[in-house]
Amino acid sequence: MERNGRDIRQVEEEIFQFHHDDVGGLLLEEWNFTLNIEMAVRQAESPTMDQIEQHAETAILHIAHFSCHRRNLGYLEPIPHDSLLYQRCLWKFGIEERAMEFIMDDVEGQIQQMVEHDWF
């Protein structure tokens, strides 16, 4: 995938005929999570404008995914990120991008504290 510059979703589709977000959605369905949460997991990485407008949970999860990816936190999938879509998600909740930077500074600090305490 990385060698050929292909996105993880393309490779998963080619090899498995489904994507990892589909697996997450199916697990949440099996575990009786609400449809909104299930859809958020299925849509969060690459939502459409309509999906973020219709599903607050999708927009919230996309903000978290984009913000962590931007800060190199967690597993980083080599997928393209749409900054305008991220902005739209922030606007949906009236969040300024600079406010997210402060929030993410705090998140990184908390992660560092957990690492220092051997919590993970």
Summary, kept brief:
This protein is mainly alpha-helical and 120 residues long. 67% of the residues lie in helices and 0% in strands.
Can you put this structure into words, describing what you see?
- With 120 residues, the protein is mostly helical.
- It has one domain (8-116).
- It is 67% helix and 0% strand.
- It contains seven helices and no strands.
- It has helices at residues 8-16, 20-30, 35-43, 49-54, 56-70, 83-92, 97-116.
- It starts with 7 loop residues before the first helix and ends with a helix.
- The relative contact order is 0.11.
- The model has no long low-confidence stretch (mean pLDDT 87).
Highlighted features:
120 residues; mainly alpha; 7 helices; globular
SSE diagram, text form:
Layout: H1 8-16, H2 20-30, H3 35-43, H4 49-54, H5 56-70, H6 83-92, H7 97-116
Kindly state the mean pLDDT as a whole number?
Answer: 87
Backbone structural class? mainly alpha
Overall number of domains: 1
Count of DSSP H/I helices: 7
Biggest pleated-sheet summary: none
Residue fraction in strands: under 5%
Per the principal axes of the C-alpha atoms, what is the gross shape?
globular
DSSP, total strands: 0
Q: What is the helical fraction, as a range of percent?
A: 55-70%
Low-confidence stretches: none
What is the end-to-end distance?
A: 29 Å
Order of helices and strands: HHHHHHH
Radius of gyration: 16 Å
